[in-house]
Design goal:
This protein has 3 helices and 5 strands. It is α/β, with parallel strands linked by helices. A 5-stranded mixed sheet has the order 2-1-3-4-5, with helices on one face. The radius of gyration is 21 Å and the shape is elongated.
Length: 164
Amino acid sequence: MTVAAIAAFLPSCSISYKLNGTAIDYSIYKTIEVSQFPIRAALVYPPLQQTFENELMDYITRNTRLQVIDTGNSDLSLEGEITGYSLSPQAVTENAYASRTRLTIQVRVKYTDHRSEGKDIDQTFSAYRDFDASEILTDVQDQLCQEISKELVELIFNSTLGDW
């Protein structure tokens, strides 16, 4: 390939990336409505709803320029429910006792793009943390819920606003 051919080819190439991980066109999208995420799981830990909602709102605020509105005619909307909160034994020892316990949280999310068809998502996200079975759940529950909520919010953000 000659230098002229390379020079002619290069202007047509462009590399773009976004440092915040979003794929939002702010000339089109200005507002987002984030609804409450009630707990609909068989096992309920009441502080989880507030923990998850706060993490979601904080993440959107930190990583986008979207204005969060309560109700009305938003460009985007996020709604859903916490559908799972469960404990399961892990790493069973030779005497048939679990040495680890897994806390799993599931969140169903409905993401609606009111400006563009075909970008809506209705999906369930799940994340978990294991803890030593000798620990009492009430002692580690707040920390585990915070960690799991952060992971769930990142998964949700990447699948919706991040457009991964």
